[in-house]
Amino acid sequence: MLNKGESLIEITVSIAIFLSLLIPTLNILNRVYIANREVDIMIFNKQNSYNILELIKQMKQDDLDKKICENIEFNKSSDILKYLNLDYTLNDEYGKYRLTIRKNDMYSGINSEYHGFYIKINKVEGIYVPRK
C-alpha cells in the first residue's frame, strides 16, 4: 500500500511530464497559426493588387498621364483608389500597397507606335495600352 507522500510525488511528476509536453505543443500550434495568418494576408494583398490593376486598366489615357508615379506607398487600398479618383470599394482589412505607374512606349513595325503604361502594385505587374 502507498503512503500519502508517495502518491503526491507521483502526481507532481505526472503533472510535470504533462506540462513539459503540452507547452512545446502549444508553442508549435501558435507558430503555425501565425504563419497561416501571414500567408492569408499575403494572398489577400495579392488579390487586391490584381483587382486594383484591373481597375486602373479601365481608366482613360489622359487620366493615367496625370497619375504617373514611382513607388508611392499607401496604407490601404482605399487610399490608392482615392489617389486614382476611382469610385470603387475594396475590402481594407490589411494594408501597405506600393504603386508605380510609368509610361511605356512600344513599337511594332516601321511606323506603328503604342503609348502604353507600366503598372506595378506591390509585386503584381502589368502593361496597359489604352484604346485611342
What is the overall pLDDT average?
83
**Residues in helix, %:** 40-55%
Strand % is: 25-35%
Largest sheet: 4 strands, antiparallel
**What overall form do the CA principal axes indicate?**
rod-shaped
Question: How large, in whole angstroms, is the Cα Rg?
Answer: 28 Å
User: Topology as H/E string?
Assistant: HHEHEEE
How many E-type strands? Answer: 4
Alpha-carbon distance between the two ends: 97 Å
- Low-pLDDT segments, ≥5 res: none
Describe this structure in words.
This protein has 132 residues and is an alpha+beta fold. 50% of the residues lie in helices and 25% in strands. The chain is built from 3 helices and 4 strands; from the N terminus they run ααβαβββ. Strands 1-2-3-4 form a 4-stranded antiparallel β-sheet. Strand 2 (97-108) and strand 3 (112-121) form a beta hairpin. The longest helix has 53 residues, at 4-56. It starts with a helix and ends with a strand. 11% of the residues are buried. The mean pLDDT is 83.
